[in-house]
Amino acid sequence: YSRVAAFRQNLPMVNIANLSYQTGAYHRSASSLDQYLRQKGGTARTMTQGELASLQQLYTSLQEPDLVLGVAAVREQEPALEQLINQHVATGNYQDALCCYEARGEGGEVTGKGMVECYLMIDQPATAASLAAGLVAQHPRMLEELAPLQAEAAWQLGRWEQVDTFSRQAGEEGG
Fold it and tell me: What is the pLDDT along the chain (175 residues), one digit of tens a residue?
């Protein structure tokens, strides 16, 4: 036990937290990140902006909107647009997330899946379906990721033939 405990203490907890996050073990990642912060002797106020962004992303993955907002309150700098989108989606502010997606799209970046998901979440399936169809027409490579969302929009609109079509497309693309 002593050797295992000593070995474990020598492992960098921040690396374990990152690895746990990458493998989807979000609770283990949070525990390891907590141990790292205790070892470091810091508080949320002494964390770097990168550490705060990682912490907010972790809380988003854990589906903890209160903690996401807590990290946002501690942040001293304006978050990057992607961080702001994640914050709005995590807290259910889909209208604000859509505004951020539109701002990102003005820079020439393809918005895609997240924007379609937001329209579905605010009960705008017709807009989501139109947007997804336009994106697939412009960028055929996006069919794989958008077909399930197109099927969801068709389902909400009661377009049963399209549900079947998009479901088959998602099945073919997904393997």
Answer: 999 988 878 888 888 899 999 999 999 999 988 888 888 776 666 778 888 888 888 999 999 999 999 888 888 888 888 889 989 999 999 999 999 988 887 655 566 888 999 999 999 999 999 999 999 998 888 888 899 999 999 999 998 888 888 888 776 655 4
CB 38 within 8 A of CB 23: no
Confidence (pTM): 0.76
Q: If you search the block for the tokens 């859509």, which residue do you land on?
A: 98
Asked if 68 contacts 59 with a C-beta cutoff of 8 angstroms, the reply is yes
H helices within 75-142, ranges in order?
81-90, 94-106, 113-121, 125-138
CB 72 within 8 A of CB 95: no
- First-to-last CA distance in the chain? 46
Please give the Cα distance from 10 to 175 (Å, whole number).
42
